[in-house]
Amino acid sequence: MSRTSKKASAATRKARIEEMRRTEKARERRNRIITIGLSTVIVAGLVGWGAYYINQANEKDEQQVAEAKKPVRGEQSWDAKKLGRNHVQGTVDYPMNPPVGGDHNQAWMTCDGTVYTKAIPKENAVHSLEHGAVWVTYNDKAADADVKKLADKVSKTPYTLMSPNDTQSGAITLSAWGKQLSVDSASDARVEQFLTKYVQGAQTPEPGAACTGGLTAS
Fold it and tell me: Where is this region: Disordered (predicted)?
């Protein structure tokens, strides 16, 4: 092969190599553009989903707070600040029956899901309410099946107690500090609502105080 032919062949190879390099660089640029584009789309999607998720979570929290502030339908309320909290001896003349707060005995009734089969002293039960318990009472208007259902529920719920109260007007009454609800049936959905809201609820004067180690009765 002549020198001229060799030079021509070398130039051709060099041109082909340059073309291959340009092609490879172009391919790399395309890949970078595609990668950046996909990354941007993914990031935008994640940001959008994150914002949506946070917004939904915030809305759910706000809804739960709003629901928590709503009173249970039919409940009665008393100003907790006006309910006495002194420890006293003897009986107390409460303005409501069962009482939902006021001066009370220094000993509380054990209220760790405790079911009493006989009436208990109101002055001791009120002390339990001060600790955040819900007191379930009933009279002879309540059906036996309802009494059993309530007893099963109370026995599984810490910071609750249950006892008969023949002097109350309603068949079934649920009392918390400053709150009270009367229902005719244990199947009433408001029973669960009241327990959920007021067992150790925001109305509790002494949240976390003991419900064990108090007085007991058979």
Answer: 1-26
